[in-house]
């Protein structure tokens, strides 16, 4: 017999590190979701840029069912066909020569940062261990990844955190030049900062970061956990910057919600993760890799990727139309279907109010910090759902402005 649960159950049995809304979704199809009471929502959040092919995509459901009848898991003392097929496709479609599979973006980044230090140790010695990252960056929730991430709030209370990590402002090449040295083993950056406020990298900045890494024999690590797998209109965002990293991490959309992550690397870099240096119990399991392979097959097509850019324009025009009427955003920015709308100064710190009001109007949206409304919908969201979602967003905007004026 299925046990009945409610939102109150969360407060009884779960660790209080989350504060979920009262909504408990029970079913999703495409870009629509229904809760326990049968209320319908348009999904502009995508599970935080994860469900890139929407909910219950029929191809992915069939792949999962087929793989479930074959193999779910194997120990990593042996390999499996779905993992090999996925790795082969990822290397064929990117700069990379080698792949390491994990379960999440945080784990993929953990592997990347360990690789960077091990590579420097192997080639230059223990003194070359410093990592440079950027303020406002987000790279995961492990102790190492929150340390590389550029948001102090995620480290508070967990000190001492790993050392040898420095930060500078994103898109500020002068600051980076002042920090980088022969002791630097890696520079870690997102091609577009996600949690930091949907801030794309300047192409010239990215180009000079690559040049500095080459000059100081440091690896360039791109965190594409949020920006990857078609999110920006190319399979990976680095393709639009004209800059090739040495290491890249990917997760979120890779499994469309099934836990899977990967670290991609050049052969020269990958050699340093020699036998026994790193591992993952579930990483590369056949179920995750079969699903991720299907995701890549669907997304990496001209139809889907060009559709991302078309939908980008629809969202931008819709947000500009709302803003022309209500003057709530001082900037609308982003790449592909990773879009940020920064609220005006008079609403500073209140982006979450729009998220809450949107949910009340039947729309899922996100925030990226206290001032930015974030949209990261399915890459194949129907245009009718975009139109309807924007109508609901405008109602939410009106509701917030009315409450502020009261």
From TrEMBL:
Single Gene Ontology MF annotation: transaminase activity
EC number: 2.6.1.11
Primary localization: cytoplasm
Top-rank taxon, per record: Bacteria
Cofactor note: Binds 1 pyridoxal phosphate per subunit.
InterPro entries hit by this protein: Ac/SucOrn_transaminase_bac, AcOrn/SuccOrn_fam, Aminotrans_3, Aminotrans_3_PPA_site, Class-III_PLP-dep_AT, PyrdxlP-dep_Trfase, PyrdxlP-dep_Trfase_major, PyrdxlP-dep_Trfase_small
Parts of the chain that traverse the membrane: none
Cofactor: pyridoxal 5'-phosphate
Record family assignment: Belongs to the class-III pyridoxal-phosphate-dependent aminotransferase family. ArgD subfamily.
The protein's name: Acetylornithine aminotransferase
Species of provenance: Marinomonas colpomeniae
Gene: argD
């Amino acid at each position: 017999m299925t046990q009945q649960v409610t939102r109150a159950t969360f407060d009884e049995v779960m660790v209080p590190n989350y504060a979920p809304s009262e909504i408990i979704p029970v079913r999703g199809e495409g870009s629509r979701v229904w809760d326990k009471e049968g209320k319908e929502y348009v999904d502009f959040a995508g599970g935080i840029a994860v469900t890139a092919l929407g909910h219950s995509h029929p191809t992915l459901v069939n792949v999962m069912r087929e793989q479930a009848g074959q193999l779910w898991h194997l120990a990593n003392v042996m390999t499996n066909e779905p993992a090999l097929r996925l790795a082969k496709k990822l290397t064929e479609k990117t700069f990379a020569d080698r792949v390491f599979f994990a379960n999440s973006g945080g784990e993929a980044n953990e592997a990347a940062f360990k690789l960077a230090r091990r590579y420097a140790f192997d080639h230059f010695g223990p003194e070359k261990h410093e990592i440079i990252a950027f303020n406002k960056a987000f790279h995961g929730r492990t102790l190492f990844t929150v340390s590389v991430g550029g948001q102090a709030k995620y480290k508070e209370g967990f000190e001492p955190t790993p050392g040898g990590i420095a930060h500078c402002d994103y898109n500020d090449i002068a600051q980076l030049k002042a920090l980088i040295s022969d002791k630097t083993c890696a520079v870690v950056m997102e091609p577009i900062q996600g949690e930091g406020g949907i801030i794309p990298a300047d192409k010239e900045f990215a180009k000079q970061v690559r040049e500095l890494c080459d000059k100081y024999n440091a690896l360039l690590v791109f965190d594409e956990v949020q920006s990857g797998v078609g999110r920006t209109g190319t399979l990976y965002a680095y393709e639009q910057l004209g800059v090739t990293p040495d290491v890249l991490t990917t997760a979120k959309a890779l499994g469309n919600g099934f836990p899977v992550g990967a670290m991609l690397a050049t052969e020269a870099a990958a050699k340093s993760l020699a036998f026994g240096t790193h591992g993952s119990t579930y990483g590369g399991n056949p179920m995750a890799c079969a699903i991720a392979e299907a995701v890549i097959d669907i997304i990496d097509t001209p139809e889907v990727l060009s559709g991302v850019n078309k939908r980008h324009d629809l969202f931008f025009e819709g947000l500009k139309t709302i803003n022309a009427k209500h003057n709530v955003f001082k900037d609308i920015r982003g790449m592909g279907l990773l879009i940020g709308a920064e609220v005006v100064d008079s609403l500073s710190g209140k982006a979450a109010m729009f998220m809450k009001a949107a949910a009340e109007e039947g729309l899922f949206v996100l925030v990226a910090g206290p001032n930015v409304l974030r949209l990261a919908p399915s890459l194949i969201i129907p245009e009718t759902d975009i139109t309807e979602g924007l109508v609901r967003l405008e109602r939410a905007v009106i509701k917030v402005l009315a409450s502020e004026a009261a």
